[in-house]
Design brief:
The protein has 1 helix and 3 strands. The protein has 68 residues and is of the alpha+beta class. InterPro entries: HicB-like, TA_system_antitoxin, TTHA1013/TTHA0281-like.
Length: 68
């Protein structure tokens, strides 16, 4: 899977990253490389939690949405 990452320089130094498809996935790092590594871990954690939460619900559906 591929995700879109917004990467910004922090005022305090280093970088902040946010996954645009999963807004709960946010991370930071001292270098771009560290930040990208950290955001990958954040995305994995968000996906794990989301999957665990889906098991709690009685009915879960998947839908496909086409983008323009």
């Amino acid at each position: 899977m591929q995700f879109t990452i917004k990467l910004e320089e922090s005022n305090e130094g280093g970088y902040t990253a946010q996954c645009l498809e999963l807004p709960a996935a946010i991370s930071e790092g001292d270098t771009i490389e560290d930040t990208l590594k950290n955001i990958k871990e954040a995305i994995q954690l968000v996906l794990e939690v989301t999957q665990e939460q889906a098991l709690v619900y009685s009915k879960v559906y998947k839908v496909e949405v086409a983008s323009a």
